[in-house]
Amino acid sequence: MAPLLAQATTNLKIGWGIIGSYARHPLVTAMDVRVVQEMAGPDRFYCGIGASKILMNAIGQGDDTKSRPRTNVEETLRIVRATLDGKKVDFVGREYIATAPELDPNAEVPDWKIPLYVGGGGPRMMQTAGELADGLITPSLTSPAFYPYAIEHMRRGAEKANRKVEELDLGATLIASCGPDRESGRRGARELLGRYLINKARNIRGSGDVLFEKAGLSPAELMPVVEAIERGGNKVIPDVVTDEIMDKTKVIAGTPEEVADLIIEHRDSGCRHVQLELWGDDREAQIKLIGEKVLPRVQ
């Protein structure tokens, strides 16, 4: 899909946020990145890499005490970057073995850099972003209060590599929906928030706890919601995912004015790269509404 989007557009920024590092060998990831890089041209493509707890669970890695998600992501970053830079790759790690020849200096390939991001919400993964990547993408339940926490852990990683955290990007893929009125504008985000609450509460306990804590969500408030959705399915989400929960998590939802104000709040709290994960009915109309009435206020 990404190469097709790149081919059909000229200005649209295109990003993978994220590619699971367990899903494919890093050399395959690097080859896929090269394809989109060529189709998109300079300064249009961003590559996010993360372990993906959902994928780890699906392949039987999530409950394995021997799994090494941070090591997996680190090795993927090193192999992908070296390959894209045209360097000879002769890598033997704990997770991967990779061998590739040095790129021929006369080869006709893009010579611009592709920013590599780490997707993660735990301290160790955020430190990896600071040490090895060009930026960090925080989880979908990120509230404004989470960004200073993320920046501090990025700083620790950056210092290990003699880098400055101020030179790195901090982004978030945020749950979003927009409509002409408050009720319709919040409907899609409410549904997706319910799904993510289950995901984070059940599958990503460590980082999920901090996400909830920073948003002001206590286990006593959260777990009855998760249990109700697990019993009743998505149909109960409108009843149990309350406006108070939506307001605490700061999902990007509501009228164009509300959406713009929320984006600005995230941006002013440290998020330099806001990405909207739109959900709900008629997403094409939502995109148009955001383009016409939200972007002029936030740009």
From TrEMBL:
It is an enzyme of class 1 (oxidoreductase). The keyword Kinase does not apply. The lineage of its organism: Bacteria, Bacillati, Actinomycetota, Actinomycetes, Mycobacteriales. Its EC number is 1.5.99.11. It holds the Pfam family Bac_luciferase. PANTHER family: 5,10-METHYLENETETRAHYDROMETHANOPTERIN REDUCTASE, PTHR43244. InterPro entries: F420-G6PD/mer, Luciferase-like_dom, Luciferase-like_sf. It comes from Mycolicibacterium smegmatis (strain ATCC 700084 / mc(2)155). It comes from the Bacteria. One of its GO terms (molecular function) is oxidoreductase activity, acting on paired donors, with incorporation or reduction of molecular oxygen. Keywords: Oxidoreductase. This is 5,10-methylenetetrahydromethanopterin reductase. Residues 4-272 form the Luciferase-like domain.
